[in-house]
């Protein structure tokens, strides 16, 4: 019987859950007494357990990176273009692990989970997390799966920050580190965009100080505005112009402030409304703060070379020409520091009109370069 899925798909996949009872100390000074991580796997772990690859997700990502949860799914996982037979992260070769980070809203313990101390949802009481906290929790997941060393840790955007942190926190447990469309720390402009998004949520009357679940409310307007602001920064000027231009949604102008007249307005409102129906407001606040706080070189007075000195991995850094949120210049900062630290590093700067979102889009040169690097990894 022929498969209902494409030949290069991992097909049907099911999320799995691991419960951890050992307390996890956090950078904020608090700890999680126990917690759960939801994850998916694709491919087969070899006998030597040497072919495992960890996928780290970005701000709004989750564990469902590839394949389908049912035959009725209209869309596959968020990085299906890069994970599967014959794709850059080839599941005929690699055993791929993709998780939903702590603080997420897709199954792992987060603000929407039950707080054992109160019996109610954590809400605003969930602790603030950092990229380093996530990496420590991911190391425990690797332990539980019997994976002593990752063949590669891979991530785009906020996921790239996690991959970089892995090479610093656990240098002996990662052979290859792929940092895609990322940065060694956020610029002041990026922190500013995140703060505008957070204020949209925090000032929504339905936010209720973060305990909106107890009120049976959802701060939809705040989430919608936060997503609209974020989405603008993920696209490039050329990309938006090519996709929408100044096309009107209606035949004539209404000369008011309430009508949706331009196609780009309609697109942003749709993106915001869809996001507000599936994402948790407290998770959005946590994820943006983790982005803001990421600065591993701060422990060495801003010296990124010294910070990366303990790393043992080989590196692949990929950037995109029109990505102004995490520009190629930020990737080159990482590359320059790695070169000065005498690490093996491959750098790819891809021409793309898609802005920051380019790391999710399978453009030919991106896929070719990504595949060539992954093909070099011995398992």
From TrEMBL:
One of its GO terms (molecular function) is homoserine O-acetyltransferase activity. GO terms for biological process: homoserine metabolic process; methionine biosynthetic process. Substrate binds at residues 227, 357. It is found in: Cytoplasm. It is an enzyme of class 2 (transferase). It catalyses: L-homoserine + succinyl-CoA = O-succinyl-L-homoserine + CoA. Residues 51-234 form the AB hydrolase-1 domain. The keyword Transferase applies. Pathway: Amino-acid biosynthesis; L-methionine biosynthesis via de novo pathway; O-succinyl-L-homoserine from L-homoserine: step 1/1. The keyword Cytoplasm applies. The active site is at residues 157, 323, 356. Keywords: Acyltransferase, Amino-acid biosynthesis, Cytoplasm, Methionine biosynthesis, Transferase. GO terms for cellular component: cytoplasm. Its EC number is 2.3.1.46. The record marks 325 as: Important for acyl-CoA specificity. Belongs to the AB hydrolase superfamily. MetX family. Transfers a succinyl group from succinyl-CoA to L-homoserine, forming succinyl-L-homoserine. Homodimer. This is Homoserine O-succinyltransferase. It comes from Geopseudomonas guangdongensis. The gene is metXS.
């Amino acid at each position: 019987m022929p498969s209902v899925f494409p030949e290069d798909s991992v097909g049907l996949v099911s999320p799995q859950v691991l419960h951890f009872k050992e307390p996890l100390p956090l950078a904020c000074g608090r700890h999680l007494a126990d917690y759960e991580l939801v994850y998916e796997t694709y491919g087969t772990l070899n006998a030597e357990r040497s072919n495992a690859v960890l996928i780290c997700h970005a701000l709004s990502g989750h564990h469902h990176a590839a394949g389908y949860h049912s035959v009725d799914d209209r869309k596959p996982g968020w990085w299906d273009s890069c994970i599967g037979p014959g794709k850059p992260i080839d599941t005929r070769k690699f055993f791929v692990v993709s998780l939903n980070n702590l603080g997420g809203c897709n199954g792992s313990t987060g603000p929407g989970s039950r707080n054992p101390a109160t019996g109610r949802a954590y809400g605003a009481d969930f602790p603030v997390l950092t990229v380093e906290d996530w990496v420590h929790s991911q190391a425990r997941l690797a332990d539980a799966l019997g994976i002593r060393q990752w063949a590669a840790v891979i991530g785009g955007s906020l996921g790239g920050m996690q991959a970089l942190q892995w090479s610093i926190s656990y240098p002996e447990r990662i052979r290859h580190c792929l940092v895609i469309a990322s940065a060694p720390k956020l610029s002041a402009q990026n922190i500013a965009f995140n703060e505008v998004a957070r204020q949209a949520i925090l000032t929504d009357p339905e936010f209720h100080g973060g305990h909106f679940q107890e009120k049976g409310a959802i701060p939809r307007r705040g989430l919608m505005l936060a997503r609209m602001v974020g989405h603008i920064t993920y696209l490039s000027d050329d990309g938006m112009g090519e996709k929408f231009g100044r096309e009107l949604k209606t035949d004539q102008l209404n000369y008011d402030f309430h009508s949706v007249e331009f196609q780009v307005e309609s697109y942003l409102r749709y993106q915001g409304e869809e996001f507000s129906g599936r994402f948790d407001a407290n998770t959005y606040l946590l994820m943006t703060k983790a982005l803001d706080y990421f600065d591993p070189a701060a422990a060495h007075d801003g010296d990124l070379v010294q910070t990366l000195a303990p790393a043992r991995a080989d590196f692949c850094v990929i950037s995109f020409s029109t990505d102004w949120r995490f520009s190629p210049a930020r990737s080159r900062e990482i590359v320059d520091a790695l070169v000065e630290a005498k690490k093996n590093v491959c750098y790819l700067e891809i021409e793309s009109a898609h802005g920051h979102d380019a790391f999710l889009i399978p453009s030919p040169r991106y896929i070719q370069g990504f595949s060539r690097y992954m093909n070099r990894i011995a398992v």
